[in-house]
Amino acid sequence: MIKMQDLKKDFTVRVKAGRFRRLKRTVAAVDGVSLTIERGEMVGYIGPNGAGKSTTLKMLTGVLTPSSGEVSVCGLTPVPQRTRLALRIGVVFGQRSQLWWDLPLRESFELLRHVYRVPAAGHATRLRRCRDLLDLDEFLDTPVRQLSLGQRMRGELTAALLHGPEVLFLDEPTIGLDVVSKQAVRSFLAELGRTGDVTLVLTTHDLADIERLCERLVVIDHGRVVHDGSIEALHARYGSRRSLVADLDRPLPDGFTLDGTTLTSVTANGHRVTFTLDSVTAGVAVAGLVAAVAVRDLSVVEPDIEDVVARLYTER
Ligand SMILES: Nc1ncnc2c1ncn2[C@@H]1O[C@H](COP(=O)(O)OP(=O)(O)OP(=O)(O)O)[C@@H](O)[C@H]1O
Ligand SMILES: [Mg+2]
């Protein structure tokens, strides 16, 4: 569905050098990305600020011409075949709007139907579905400029989907949304993914989006792919471990150890302790702990994706 081969985008920027001089400098925003994405995949495309995510999406959607390399989406070359491509993809740039500022959402949607020449029946079915899943009805007749960010974003998603695209590109679709709106957007996208006929590429800084939606995670940094695989693969690469958190009646005795684990934190009052499970199963660690001390409560915590991703960003 999507193919990128050694894709690059350079920007020339002028930087100040002394009082009057300006030097030209080249920024390699995307620096040789090669990826293949199959139909129905849901791919999280993440990376630190300035990594080149938005630039990649702009080349995929035909907004920017690559400096070199090859790119194809739905078998089309984005920039020269931009008009044909537009009928087959949906795009949401969280920071920008594709809606008409002064029109109510309802009318924006109707206009889009004409822009894309979508048959009325398909359009109506998709709109009905978006209205239900994204709770649009209460603000369908409000002008876009009066919508809150979360309401507008639900409108943007709908607008991107009304022509029944095969590929959806979302650049930070949950940016600035409250927890409830985020969940609404996520479950909407998950529902969309379940049917398997939409391919999704999503950038985000909220890793919960990725955990909820994407089996494949592509991480870029300085324009290059530094990880491509599942979240589990990332955890495996960094040796992330689960931990055992226990609430105790009284602090651990001095020098206490639990085989196969490392004691990684103790709260100030000593009543809550955390062990990393290095080489034992949770069952063995729990048995060892309850045999040694009085335990009031226990939980096993999965490794935190934020932690591994932070390690990946900082080590580079
Ligand atoms: N139009 C432009 N002119 C010059 N440099 C640009 C332009 N657009 C992007 N860049 C530079 O290219 C690099 C990548 O930018 P890009 O917007 O793709 O990053 P990003 O991964 O989307 O970051 P963020 O998470 O902050 O959105 C940055 O160094 C940025 O300054
Ligand atoms: Mg960006």
From TrEMBL:
Record GO biological process: response to antibiotic
One annotated GO molecular function: ATP binding
UniProt entry tagged with the keyword Nucleotide-binding: yes
Compartment annotation: Cell membrane
Keyword line: Antibiotic resistance, ATP-binding, Nucleotide-binding, Transport
Membrane topology of this protein: Peripheral membrane protein
Any Pfam family matching the protein: ABC_tran
Primary site of residence: membrane
Entry superkingdom: Bacteria
Gene Ontology terms: cellular component: plasma membrane
Record has Transport as a keyword: yes
Stretches assigned to the ABC transporter domain: 2-247
PANTHER family with a match to the protein in the record: ABC TRANSPORTER ATP-BINDING PROTEIN, ABC-TRANSPORT PROTEIN, ATP-BINDING COMPONENT
Protein's name in the database: ABC-2 type transport system ATP-binding protein
Organism of derivation: Actinoplanes italicus
